[in-house]
Specification:
This protein is α+β, with helices and mostly antiparallel strands. The protein has helices at about 1-20, 80-90; strands at about 35-40, 55-65, 75-80, 95-105, 110-119.
């Protein structure tokens, strides 16, 4: 009976703890072991005839910090949705967006989204 209770507690704890480790991102860049810095398009530019020098640029940042010594708890803050970045920059028509991810040892990560469009 004791073995069954211990197995049940282990199963419940593993199931509940696994939910904290699941992160859903629209883009999953490759991760380096020590340092990562990746820049790539987040959308496809459908209007190739637009003069890119006249576009307004909006930037949003999100940060992630992992306290790994004692609690292994992660903290994230920032807003990087295309709509909120465009709204904050006064962009009415979004033409394209790109992103940049910088990570150091998986402890600190910064996600930057650049939105290009017309105001």
């Amino acid at each position: 009976m004791m073995r069954f209770a211990l197995l049940l507690c282990l199963l419940v704890g593993t199931t509940l703890g696994a939910g904290c480790a699941q992160v859903r991102m629209p883009v999953v860049p490759p991760q380096g072991l020590i340092y990562t810095n990746v820049k790539a398009p987040a959308t496809i530019d459908t209007q190739l005839n637009v003069d890119r020098s006249e576009l307004t640029v909006g930037t949003g940042e999100a940060h992630y910090l992992l306290e790994f010594l004692i609690t292994r708890i992660g903290f994230a803050w920032g807003e990087t949705s295309i709509s909120s970045v465009a709204r904050g920059a006064g962009i009415d028509t979004v033409h394209y967006a790109d992103y940049e991810v910088m990570s150091i040892l998986g402890i600190y990560q910064k996600f930057t989204l650049n939105v290009y469009g017309e105001s």
